[in-house]
């Protein structure tokens, strides 16, 4: 799932590039068929070298309204589904406790 074709040769053999995937935590599921996902990443500070947490939020399409707040999920890039929704839920990796 997470392999991304990196060289132009790999892209040519597969027909098209693999879609991007991200793992994040659901922070809101109050909409119908949509969830808001928070993705954390570590970025090294350019001067001091300390790693800083950065978060990004994505709107993802959840066809069956399966994901609940606190769940860890895998999302995949897809065609635009609305003004802000460009990702879709692939699978729920871990349920919230």
Describe the overall structure.
There is one protein chain. With 97 residues, the chain is mainly beta. It is 7% helix and 51% strand. It is built from 1 helix and 5 strands. It has one helix spanning 8-14; strands at residues 21-31, 34-44, 51-61, 72-77, 85-94. A 5-stranded mixed β-barrel has the order 1-2-3-5-4. It is globular, with a radius of gyration of 16 Å. It starts with 7 loop residues before the first helix and ends with a strand. The relative contact order is 0.23. The mean pLDDT is 90.
Short description:
The protein starts with 7 loop residues before the first helix and ends with a strand. The model has no long low-confidence stretch (mean pLDDT about 90).
Per-chain topology:
Blueprint: H1 8-14, E1 21-31, E2 34-44, E3 51-61, E4 72-77, E5 85-94
Parallel strand pairs: 3-5
Antiparallel strand pairs: 1-2, 1-4, 2-3, 4-5
Gross geometry: globular
Largest sheet: 5 strands, mixed, barrel
CATH H-level superfamily title: Nucleic acid-binding proteins
Radius of gyration (Å): 16 Å
Arrangement of strands in the largest sheet = 1-2-3-5-4
Question: Key features?
Answer:
mainly beta, OB fold (Dihydrolipoamide Acetyltransferase, E2P), 97 residues, 5-stranded mixed barrel, 5 strands, 7% helix
């Amino acid at each position: 799932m997470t392999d991304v074709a990196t060289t132009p040769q790999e892209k040519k053999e597969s027909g098209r590039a693999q879609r991007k995937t991200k793992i994040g935590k659901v922070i809101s599921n109050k909409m119908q068929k949509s969830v808001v996902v928070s993705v954390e990443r570590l970025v090294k500070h350019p001067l001091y070298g300390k790693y800083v947490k950065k978060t990004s939020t994505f709107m993802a399409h959840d066809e069956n309204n399966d994901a609940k707040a606190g769940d860890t999920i895998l999302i995949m890039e897809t065609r635009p589904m609305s003004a802000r929704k460009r990702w879709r839920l692939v699978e729920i990796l871990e349920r919230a406790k």
